Automatic annotation (TrEMBL), chain A:
One of its GO terms (cellular component) is NADH dehydrogenase complex. The gene is nuoA. This is NADH-quinone oxidoreductase subunit A. It comes from the Bacteria. The keyword ATP-binding does not apply. GO terms for molecular function: NADH dehydrogenase (quinone) (non-electrogenic) activity; NADH dehydrogenase (ubiquinone) activity; quinone binding. Belongs to the complex I subunit 3 family. The keyword RNA-binding does not apply. InterPro entries: NAD(P)H_OxRDtase_bac/plastid, NADH_UbQ/plastoQ_OxRdtase_su3, NDAH_ubi_oxred_su3_sf. Gene3D superfamilies: NADH:ubiquinone/plastoquinone oxidoreductase, chain 3 (1.20.58.1610). It is an enzyme of class 7 (translocase). NDH-1 is composed of 14 different subunits. Subunits NuoA, H, J, K, L, M, N constitute the membrane sector of the complex. Keywords: Cell membrane, Membrane, NAD, Quinone, Translocase, Transmembrane, Transmembrane helix, Transport, Ubiquinone. PANTHER family: NADH-QUINONE OXIDOREDUCTASE SUBUNIT A, NADH-UBIQUINONE OXIDOREDUCTASE CHAIN 3.
Automatic annotation (TrEMBL), chain B:
Keywords: Cell membrane, Membrane, NAD, Quinone, Translocase, Transmembrane, Transmembrane helix, Transport, Ubiquinone. This is NADH-quinone oxidoreductase subunit N. The chain crosses the membrane at residues 6-26, 38-62, 68-86, 98-116, 122-139, 151-172, 192-214, 226-249, 264-281, 288-310, 316-336, 356-381, 393-410, 431-451. It is a multi-pass membrane protein. One of its GO terms (biological process) is ATP synthesis coupled electron transport. It is an enzyme of class 7 (translocase). It comes from Tanticharoenia sakaeratensis NBRC 103193. The lineage of its organism: Bacteria, Pseudomonadati, Pseudomonadota, Alphaproteobacteria, Acetobacterales. It is found in: Cell membrane; Endomembrane system; Membrane. One of its GO terms (molecular function) is quinone binding. It holds the Pfam family Proton_antipo_M. It catalyses: a quinone + NADH + 5 H(+)(in) = a quinol + NAD(+) + 4 H(+)(out). One of its GO terms (cellular component) is endomembrane system. NDH-1 is composed of 14 different subunits. Subunits NuoA, H, J, K, L, M, N constitute the membrane sector of the complex. The gene is nuoN.
Length: 156, 481
């Protein structure tokens, strides 16, 4: 028996987790108060039962640049992580590592130049990226930045 | 070459540099000719540097298997490049420049994956491939079906990556190392943990390989994308993943019955039968080829499950035959009608454009396994591997699947033999790159079918897993041997 417990700790863990979850769910459904009809009240059907009352619609269109900037931030933030980890061993790692870091930064520089040139860093009214086809039909979901926010504010 | 880079496979270095140069070229001036030339040049140089070696490391395995599968991947990418040159559907929504960039990046990811000896290198390759494929699938952004395909791909790709990483985490918990190999089922402290890790990693890979029962996304995604991307998705990503999967199981004894071996057997059987059943009912050529691709993954798993003298050789041969015939079929569809891939579009092709129809017939014969096309010998090779490993059930599945496959492959030939309809245009000439590609692939399919020994390795290929076994932690030595 001890041998079984020693060699199948994961199986036992899974069994215990499953049993515990079943007990918790079963107990709350048996012991918990149940409200039906008028006793349910309006506050039960809003997202935050005891928080602020939500206002307006959640279907707001944010300008697409918002997401782009967020993504660029993550990408270039990760660059910082790599450089910091290199900087702690910069002297010991020697010239080879320095060259590697230079190549890394050069690659990121090329990427940044590409983004800049493609118009991904433009904030505000959208200009067509260089070389893109003239929009004979506007893309669905293409909303001007200011318009999106005012729509959200107007929603009841 | 810098000492730091010397552990990287040379083709990976070339492809990364090529990606950057292409990006710089797009930044300076958008010109499709420059993009295509740079992409082709990068792929050719990457092919040329494949025989070069690299410093041994725990991250990359630069061995014969990596060279062979990378060569297949790079050649297939060149095929896709030839197909997409002057393709109207690629450039209908967006400038075509990023298409070439993403194509090069997906080749880079697939090549990286075939060399991955560590979970991290494999995963970086896989994500490079998946993310660039996502961009390619959604390239025709104003089309609703492209959006649907991209959405399905991103959700399922994300889910399968999560499953895969969870498997790696369990594997790390068990063995204490990130070596890309199935944790050995016999030795570990916790057999259940090792088995769960392997099953989770396999499930993630099966999702990406679209083996039944994880296959449902493939037909929809192929239908929603342009033809070159469909070819890339069903050839390059599958070669990369299958090559990695063979490496994953290199040190694992799949012959002993056990949960892992049983799961792979079940998935292989289901894929052979399910893929063919899926393809039989399709009237859209892309969906039909999706079913066919699922079935071929099932056949390939027979080679995976038959380790020994024939296993790796037959898998490599089959991958080559599959890649040539599938890219050829997609290229001919591209030449006939890039936008309309219903089976009807081929009607009367033997009257209107006999050369293309002959090429299509060769590709279909190869996929069905009819001599003298190379697919016949590939199937024989895989069957020999299965026989030598006494995989009777899988061989039965292989035969039943092949018979079912005959129906829909030959139906394509029958439709091409039917009288032409009036509205079929006869004037459209295939783009020069595509014409060269089709003739080259038809030639390869026939020549390799007659002289298969050209592609059979004289010495058995080794996966080179045990070279630096001494440098790895003791607990993993059993896992990779």
């Amino acid at each position: 028996m001890t041998q079984f417990f020693n060699s199948h700790s994961l199986a036992i863990y899974i069994v215990f987790v499953t049993a515990l979850l079943c007990i918790v769910v079963a107990l709350s459904s048996v012991l918990g108060p149940r409200r039906v009809g008028a006793a349910r009240g309006r506050s039960m059907s809003i997202p935050y039962e005891s928080g602020i009352l939500p206002s307006g619609s959640s279907r707001i269109r944010l300008p697409v640049q918002y997401y782009l900037i967020a993504m660029f931030f993550v990408i270039f933030d990760v660059e910082g992580v790599f450089l910091f980890s290199w900087s702690t061993v910069a002297v010991r790692a020697g010239w080879a590592a320095y060259a590697t870091v230079l190549v890394f930064i050069a690659f990121l520089g090329v990427a940044l130049a590409y983004l800049w040139r493609s118009g991904a860093l433009e904030w505000g009214l959208r200009r067509r990226p260089a070389g893109a086809r003239d929009p004979s039909r506007p893309l669905p979901g293409h909303v001007l930045p200011g318009q999106a926010f005012s729509e959200g504010a107007r929603a009841p | 070459m810098m000492p730091t880079f010397s552990a990287l496979p040379p083709s990976v270095v070339v492809l990364s540099l090529g990606t950057m140069v292409l990006m710089l070229a797009i930044t300076i001036k958008r010109s499709e000719i420059i993009d295509a030339v740079l992409t082709l040049l990068t792929l050719l140089v990457a092919l040329a540097v494949l025989p070069m070696g690299a410093a041994p490391s725990a991250l990359f395995a630069v061995d014969d298997w990596h060279r062979f599968s990378s060569a297949l991947i790079i050649l297939s990418s060149i095929g896709v490049l030839a197909m997409s040159w002057r393709d109207p559907t690629v450039r209908e929504a967006h400038a075509p420049d990023e298409f070439y960039l993403l194509l090069l990046m997906s080749a880079l990811g697939a090549v990286l994956m075939t060399a991955g000896r560590n979970d991290i290198t494999f995963f970086i390759g896989l994500e490079t491939l998946s993310l660039s494929l996502l961009g390619l699938i959604g390239y025709r952004q104003h089309r609703i079906e492209a959006g649907e395909a991209a959405m399905k791909y991103v959700v399922l790709s994300g889910v399968s990556s999560a499953i895969l990483v969870f498997g790696f985490a369990l594997s790390y918990a068990e063995t204490g190392s990130l070596v890309f190999a199935a944790p050995h089922a016999l030795h570990p402290v916790e057999p259940l943990l090792a088995a769960m890790a392997t099953v989770l990693v396999m499930t993630g890979m099966f999702f990406k390989l679209s083996a039944v029962p994880f296959h449902t996304w493939l037909a929809d995604v192929l239908e929603g994308t342009s033809i070159p991307v469909a070819a890339l998705l069903s050839v390059v990503s599958k070669i990369g993943l299958f090559a990695a999967m063979l490496r994953y199981f290199a040190g694992f004894d799949l012959m002993t019955p056990g949960s892992v071996s049983d799961e792979v057997t079940a998935v292989a059987l289901l894929s052979m039968i399910g893929g063919n059943l899926l393809a039989i009912g399709q009237t859209d050529l892309k969906r039909m080829l999706a079913g066919s691709s699922i079935a071929h993954i099932g056949y390939l798993m027979v080679a995976l499950l038959a380790p020994g003298a024939f296993g790796l050789g037959s898998a490599g041969f089959y991958l080559a035959a599959y890649a040539a015939a599938t890219i050829g079929a997609f290229a001919i569809m591209e030449a006939v009608s890039p936008n309309h891939t219903h089976l009807n579009s081929l009607q009367g092709l033997f009257r209107t454009r006999p050369a293309l129809a002959l090429g299509m017939a060769v590709m279909m014969a190869s996929l069905a396994g009819i001599p003298p096309a190379v697919g016949f010998f590939a199937k024989v090779y895989v069957a020999v591997a299965g026989v030598s490993a006494h995989r009777d059930l899988l061989l039965a599945g292989l035969i039943v699947g092949s018979v079912m496959g005959l129906f829909y492959y030959l139906r394509v030939v029958r439709v091409m033999l039917m009288p032409a309809t009036d509205e079929v245009s006869t004037g459209r000439i295939a783009a020069p790159g595509n014409a060269v590609l089709i003739s080259a692939l038809a030639l390869v399919t026939l020549v390799l079918g007659v002289y298969p020994s050209l592609l059979i390795p004289r010495n058995p290929i080794h996966l080179g897993a045990d070279v630096e076994a001494a440098t790895l932690p003791v607990s993993t030595q059993t896992a990779i041997r």
